[in-house]
Amino acid sequence: MEIRAIVTDIEGTTSSIDFVRDVLFPYARKRLPAFVETHGDTPEVQHWLHEAAKEAGIIEASRQEIIEMLLRWIDEDRKSTALKALQGMIWKDGYEAGDYRAHVYPEVPARLRAWRAQGLKLYVYSSGSVPAQKLFFRHSDAGDLGPLFAGYFDTQTGPKREAASYAAIAEAIDEQPAHILFLSDIVQELDAARAAGFQTGWLLRDPAQASGTPTHPAYPDFDAITV
Ligand SMILES: CSCCC(=O)C(=O)COP(=O)(O)O
Ligand SMILES: [Mg+2]
């Protein structure tokens, strides 16, 4: 079946898990308390603090209690939409100050450009917030990759392990699921995408991850994917 669009995950797929865990998460963790104290009264931050409390089922909590809960969520790598929105706001400063650049695997930029040249439309679907995704690719260690993407999706579209999220993405990009290839390192995400009718590609960047027969077409890197 012809592929017309590719939707890619970030962490573990275009980019290393280590960069997210060892650079981005600690950066946000260190700055979150001061960020909330300084910006906690702005409507956007207030909205996401309220959403985080709602997600935790908390009716009344001090700002300090919310901060402590968010720090725990960072440690747990909780894929909370509210936490991801706040993390994205904190990471903006780091990118703009040049404290880090986002990691992308070496073959990814050229392969994305080749797919664009073939006429494919490229999209991102990550647990990171859409503003965080845009910053990530704008400030990558291979330069500004933002112009390669036609759109971005995060968990405001829905959880990554639910088929309905992929159906919503297909509708938003006006493409039939069978013509969309979803790339991820997480089998449960690929299962959900396949249940929605997408084609799937499993990035197995660490061969040690593989055990038994892969349940999705598996690739060690983007260059191995033929579209
Ligand atoms: C937008 S980069 C930050 C990555 C992040 O916070 C995250 O949770 C990555 O999850 P993914 O869905 O890309 O595996
Ligand atoms: Mg991933």
From TrEMBL:
Keyword set, alphabetical order: Amino-acid biosynthesis, Hydrolase, Magnesium, Metal-binding, Methionine biosynthesis
NCBIfam families per the UniProt record, alphabetical: enolase-ppase, HAD-SF-IA-v1
Functional pathway: Amino-acid biosynthesis; L-methionine biosynthesis via salvage pathway; L-methionine from S-methyl-5-thio-alpha-D-ribose 1-phosphate: step 3/6; Amino-acid biosynthesis; L-methionine biosynthesis via salvage pathway; L-methionine from S-methyl-5-thio-alpha-D-ribose 1-phosphate: step 4/6
Reaction equation(s) it catalyzes: 5-methylsulfanyl-2,3-dioxopentyl phosphate + H2O = 1,2-dihydroxy-5-(methylsulfanyl)pent-1-en-3-one + phosphate
Name the UniProt record assigns to this protein: Enolase-phosphatase E1
Known cofactor(s): Mg(2+)
Enzyme Commission number, as recorded: 3.1.3.77
Source organism (scientific name): Dyella ginsengisoli
Subunit organization: Monomer.
Cofactor note: Binds 1 Mg(2+) ion per subunit.
Alphabetized GO MF terms: acireductone synthase activity
